[in-house]
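User: Please fill in residues for this 303-position structure.
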């Protein structure tokens, strides 16, 4: 299973079968790990000819022959759930701090809104470039990831202040609550086995996401050259529908991210991979927050 997230898809955080709780080990009795079960054996940067590339068990080849699950290396350099949680909290913490500073230091009154929006758009462009650079790097760069979070926080702080102060009072807090609720709901559903992330799920979500992004790009082009809201995908009833679709897609992205983290833990990914997990989860949470904020703005502008 390859994630729609460029971070996880390049690292090979995946295995294709079923679902399980976090820290679950690959199940015994399945097909040979080298040909199907182990995601790192198919062109991943850490791949070895056969078996789990992180396993240090001298009997690993015999285990594969008889269908036993590969054993993750018992070393302190292996990624743990605590590593993922701590690094995700650090990345989101930087984002929240810079968002709060941007909200406080960049006013959006009539005299300053143009300058503030300009700073926010500039920060968004820098953040996008940094995200692309990290996405295509072979190794995680904590400094790059935290710098991305800082610039993304400036953008979110400005856009949240604009919506909260000029369109819908309390919109930012409502978007935060909505994002947290979706995160918690998807996590509970995933761990309970109600969401099964497999190839069919992945293919459906990717097709829907590509269609969604394509329509938004077309709408943006019509808005730039034709004025107004383009084809109307971001206003009125149609805007509300597409806002709900965006939130649903974000929830699906979260489920796939959980699957990638789970598989990285099961196969003993190196500890530095926790930074990539944090980066991928942050990207998805930013998507969800922006979709909620946009949906709230549309609903209030229709009143």
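Assistant: Residues filled in for all 303 positions:
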């Amino acid at each position: 299973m390859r994630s729609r997230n460029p971070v996880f898809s390049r690292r090979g955080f995946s295995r294709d079968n079923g679902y399980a709780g976090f820290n679950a080990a690959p199940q015994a009795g399945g097909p040979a790990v080298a040909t199907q079960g182990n995601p790192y054996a198919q062109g991943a940067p850490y791949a070895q000819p056969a078996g789990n590339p992180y396993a240090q068990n001298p009997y690993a080849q015999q285990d594969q022959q008889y269908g036993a699950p590969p054993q993750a290396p018992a070393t302190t350099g292996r990624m743990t759930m605590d590593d993922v949680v701590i690094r995700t909290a650090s990345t989101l913490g930087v984002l929240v701090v810079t968002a709060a500073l941007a909200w406080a230091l960049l006013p959006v009154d009539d005299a300053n809104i143009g300058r503030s929006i300009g700073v926010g758009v500039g920060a968004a462009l820098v953040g996008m470039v940094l995200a692309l650079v990290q996405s295509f790097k072979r190794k995680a760069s904590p400094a790059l990831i935290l710098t991305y979070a800082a610039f993304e926080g400036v953008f979110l702080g400005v856009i949240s202040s604009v919506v909260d102060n000029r369109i819908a009072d309390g919109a930012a807090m409502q978007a935060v609550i909505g994002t947290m609720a979706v995160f918690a709901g998807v996590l509970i559903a995933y761990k309970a086995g109600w969401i099964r992330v497999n190839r069919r799920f992945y293919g459906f979500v990717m097709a829907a996401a590509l269609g969604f992004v394509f329509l938004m790009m077309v709408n943006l082009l019509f808005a730039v050259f034709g004025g107004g809201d383009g084809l109307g995908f971001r206003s009125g009833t149609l805007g509300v529908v597409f806002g709900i679709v965006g939130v649903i897609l974000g929830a699906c992205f979260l489920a796939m991210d959980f699957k990638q983290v789970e598989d990285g833990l099961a196969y003993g990914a190196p500890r530095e991979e926790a930074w990539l997990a944090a980066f991928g989860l942050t990207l998805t949470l930013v998507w969800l927050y922006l979709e909620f904020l946009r949906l709230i703005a549309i609903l209030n502008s229709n009143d």
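For context: The mean pLDDT is 79.
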